[in-house]
């Protein structure tokens, strides 16, 4: 990888953040003795005069061949004069390995990619295992300050009630990533049956009935599946998109809402949630929702969409890759359904105002030179370094656009992607470490009319951004102290497991909404839902209402 690669990026990419103005961070706690700082000034390289080794425990990307021989690894080591001694966990074992490292005290210098929860950050931060980053940000956080200036809500959301910031975050402001609860529909079937795109819940029901009864795939068989979903993640659940026509159902906020007094509450015991369940139950009773929706994973859902004659009419999913093979043509038959207007006029889509992956990088008390560790991490937020770390080097991960190529926003393009996310390669780290993908960066991407980025962007702009919820409606991430975390964990599992079970039972008719709803509410009360909500409000007040 050539040094000129990095320099050429500067003229191509829009700045992800503004310079100047840092966060109002707290000072390092008393008793934390500072070691000699990095020799070079912030923003200059190399970071260390003498070769330094950094022990890093990371969640291994399945798309990186070998971190030791990786081209970015070698380039970044040469640039910073810091060599990484890697230790890895797979995505499946990351929680187990994290818990083991924390319980035994056998810690690396830096922990990356474990999405350490706010509760764990605060508990182990106050025990001294995770170092507060505040003083490092003040002195060396050139790029982190830009992030906080651009996204003050992220600074607030990652600051614990004790005033400390314990982690750096991955930030993805790709427009389609900010809106994740979508519905996709087979528009070729709509054309064949001469049906308009549904705009209301009643119209959606009528479209699904037509899919079931009028043989839109033309094979003479009654084999159409009007609507499917899955259980692998909440975005594929059949209730994920449709429930928002009846009540705000923001899964990124854990189904938390604000009541009329501005207090945190839950949505799953409200009349609107009951109405949504009644609608979904009606669809299921009419044979419009596939029974497999409550048992199948994404691969099984994709097999149904791709197999033989086109059989699936509508799919609940964030992106088409989840339910279709984007190397083939079938996914292009699907376009998004706009938020449907419900019986009470509600038409909305949840927006991830706090769209970041918290707990992405933490520095432990085992670090002999935490200043160097922080500067190594902070530089990864730099536009050019971050592009090369996560998209790839010029000519391999991306290339300059040809004259006349337009970005997603219709303006002259800044770059063309050559390595799609999910490609096995050894050129970059593919989002192993914290990263910043700004909206401006994605809007400058050149993509053809039938390429996934173009389809996602256009569908987002046309059907979802006009209906996004307001920031004031979104419950932010919340820190809990050790006592709150301990009490909440048991309550949350009991309550959420029961809500998930009963939501499914109500939809498929295994429980009667009319007869069993009161019992459902009483059971939630007996599980101490009141205390569950109280804990959220207490922690919210401590963090956000000082």
Tell me what you see in this structure.
The two termini are 48 Å apart. The model is unreliable at 1-38 (pLDDT under 50). The protein has 20 helices and 15 strands. The strands form 4 sheets. The protein has a 6-stranded mixed sheet. A 4-stranded mixed sheet has the order 6-9-5-10. With 546 residues, it is α/β, with parallel strands linked by helices. The longest helix is centred in the C-terminal third of the chain and has 27 residues, at 482-508.
Produce a short descriptive summary.
The chain is of the alpha/beta class. 37% of the residues lie in helices and 12% in strands. Strand 7 (256-258) and strand 8 form a beta hairpin.
Quick tags:
15 strands, four-stranded mixed sheet, 37% helix, six-stranded mixed sheet, disordered N terminus, alpha/beta
How would you summarize the topology of this molecule?
Blueprint: H1 3-10, E1 52-59, H2 71-80, E2 82-89, H3 94-104, E3 110-112, H4 118-126, H5 134-140, H6 142-150, H7 152-157, E4 168-172, H8 175-178, E5 183-186, H9 187-192, H10 201-213, E6 225-228, H11 238-242, E7 256-258, E8 264-266, H12 271-285, H13 298-306, E9 312-316, E10 334-336, E11 356-363, H14 370-378, H15 383-390, E12 398-399, E13 415-417, E14 436-437, H16 439-443, E15 445-446, H17 452-464, H18 482-508, H19 513-526, H20 529-544
Parallel strand pairs: 1-2, 1-3, 4-14, 6-9, 13-15
Antiparallel strand pairs: 3-11, 4-11, 5-9, 5-10, 7-8, 12-13
């Amino acid at each position: 990888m050539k040094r000129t690669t990095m320099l050429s990026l500067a003229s191509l990419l829009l700045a992800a953040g503004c310079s100047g103005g840092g966060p109002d961070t707290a000072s390092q706690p008393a008793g934390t003795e500072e070691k000699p700082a990095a020799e070079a000034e912030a923003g200059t390289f190399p970071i260390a005069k003498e070769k330094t080794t950094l022990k890093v425990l990371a969640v291994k990307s399945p798309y990186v061949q070998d971190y030791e021989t990786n081209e970015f690894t070698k380039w970044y080591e040469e640039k910073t004069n810091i060599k990484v001694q890697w230790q890895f966990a797979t995505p499946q074992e990351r929680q187990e390995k994290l818990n083991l490292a924390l319980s035994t005290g056998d810690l690396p210098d830096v922990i990356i990619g474990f999405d350490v929860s706010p509760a764990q950050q605060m508990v182990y931060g106050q025990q001294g295992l995770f170092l507060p980053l505040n003083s490092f940000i003040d002195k060396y956080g050139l790029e982190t300050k830009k992030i906080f200036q651009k996204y003050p809500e992220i600074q607030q959301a990652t600051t614990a009630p004790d005033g400390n910031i314990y982690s750096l975050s991955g930030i993805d402001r790709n427009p389609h990533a900010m809106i994740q609860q979508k519905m996709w529909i087979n528009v070729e079937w709509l054309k064949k049956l001469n049906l308009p795109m549904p705009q209301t819940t009643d119209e959606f029901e009528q479209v699904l009935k037509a899919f079931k009864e009028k043989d839109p795939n033309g094979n003479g068989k009654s084999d159409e599946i009007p609507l499917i979903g899955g259980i692998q993640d909440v975005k594929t659940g059949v209730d994920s998109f449709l429930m928002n026509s009846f009540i705000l159902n923001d899964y990124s906020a854990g189904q938390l809402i604000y009541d009329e007094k501005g207090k945190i509450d839950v949505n799953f015991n409200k009349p609107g949630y009951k109405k949504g369940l009644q609608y979904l139950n009606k669809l299921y009773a009419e044979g419009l929702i596939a029974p497999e929706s409550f048992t199948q994973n994404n691969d099984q859902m994709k097999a149904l969409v791709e197999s033989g004659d086109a059989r699936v009419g509508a799919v609940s999913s964030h992106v088409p890759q989840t339910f279709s093979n984007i190397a083939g043509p079938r996914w292009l038959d699907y376009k998004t359904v706009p938020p449907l207007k419900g019986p009470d006029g509600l038409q909305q889509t949840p927006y991830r105002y706090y769209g970041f992956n918290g707990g992405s990088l933490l520095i432990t008390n085992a670090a002999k030179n935490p200043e160097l560790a922080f500067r190594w991490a902070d530089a990864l937020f730099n536009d050019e370094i971050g592009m090369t770390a996560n998209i790839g080097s010029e000519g391999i991960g991306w290339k300059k656009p040809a004259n006349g190529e337009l970005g997603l926003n219709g303006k002259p393009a800044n770059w063309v992607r050559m390595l799609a996310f999910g490609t096995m390669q050894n050129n970059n780290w593919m989002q192993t470490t914290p990263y910043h993908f700004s909206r401006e960066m994605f809007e400058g991407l050149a993509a053809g009319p039938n390429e996934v980025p173009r389809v996602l962007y256009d569908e987002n702009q046309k059907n979802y951004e006009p209906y996004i919820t307001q920031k004031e409606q979104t419950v932010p991430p919340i820190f809990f102290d050790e006592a709150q975390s301990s009490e909440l964990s048991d309550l949350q599992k009991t309550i959420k497991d029961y809500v998930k079970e009963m939501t499914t039972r109500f939809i498929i008719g295994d429980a009667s909404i009319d007869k069993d709803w009161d019992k459902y509410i009483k059971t939630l009360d007996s599980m101490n839902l009141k205390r569950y909500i109280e804990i959220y409000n207490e922690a919210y007040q401590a963090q956000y209402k000082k």
